């Protein structure tokens, strides 16, 4: 029987390179003028990215390492006029386990394991936890 509170670890498989350097630079959503970014897959995992191509839509799972993991409630979109809401009902990066979920389109393969993507709303240096194929694959 599994333990609901078992400890586990993520091993980053790559990193995001972005023009977003400070939390205050980040748009609330990728659809709100998020810049292009580069995803770099670490050499040990390049084989897993061998069939990623320009035009592919992928789902990136990131570890939002600058997030406040003690946050349980927030004002959605940081609007103090809204009711405090449990973070599991929001897209806030501040949460107990700050896993980011991003659907992005690959626009260019820059080299082995390095790809340019459209509209990614995460900070430079954000670790990549996993990549999954997008809808229809």
Summarize the model shown.
With 137 residues, this protein is mostly beta strands. It is built from no helices and eight strands.
Provide an overview of this structure.
Strand 6 (99-111) and strand 7 form a beta hairpin. It contains no helices and 8 strands. It has a single domain (14-133), classed as Elongation Factor Tu (Ef-tu), domain 3 (Beta Barrel). The model has no long low-confidence stretch (mean pLDDT 89). The protein is globular, with a radius of gyration of 16 Å. The chain has strands at 14-18, 37-41, 57-63, 73-74, 85-86, 99-111, 114-117, 127-133. The chain is mostly beta strands.
Shape assignment? globular
Low-confidence stretches: none
Q: Spatial order of the strands in the main sheet?
A: 1-2-7-6-3-8
List how many beta strands DSSP finds.
8
Rg value: 16 Å
Largest sheet: 6 strands, antiparallel, barrel
Topology of helices and strands:
Elements: E1 14-18, E2 37-41, E3 57-63, E4 73-74, E5 85-86, E6 99-111, E7 114-117, E8 127-133
Antiparallel strand pairs: 1-2, 1-8, 2-7, 3-6, 3-8, 4-5, 6-7
Key features?
137 residues, mainly beta, Elongation Factor Tu (Ef-tu), domain 3, 0% helix, globular
């Amino acid at each position: 029987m599994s333990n609901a509170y078992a400890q586990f670890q993520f091993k980053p498989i790559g990193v995001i390179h972005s023009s977003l350097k400070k939390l205050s630079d980040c748009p609330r959503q990728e659809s709100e003028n998020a810049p292009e970014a580069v995803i770099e897959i670490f050499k040990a995992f390049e084989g897993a990215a061998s069939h990623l191509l320009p035009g592919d839509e992928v789902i990136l799972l990131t570890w939002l390492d600058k997030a406040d993991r003690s946050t349980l409630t927030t004002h959605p979109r940081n609007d103090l006029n809204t009711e405090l809401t449990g973070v599991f009902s929001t897209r806030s990066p501040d949460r107990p386990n700050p896993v980011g979920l991003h659907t992005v389109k690959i626009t260019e393969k820059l080299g082995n394991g390095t790809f340019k993507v459209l509209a990614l709303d995460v900070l430079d240096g954000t670790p990549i936890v996993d990549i999954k194929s997008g809808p229809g694959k």
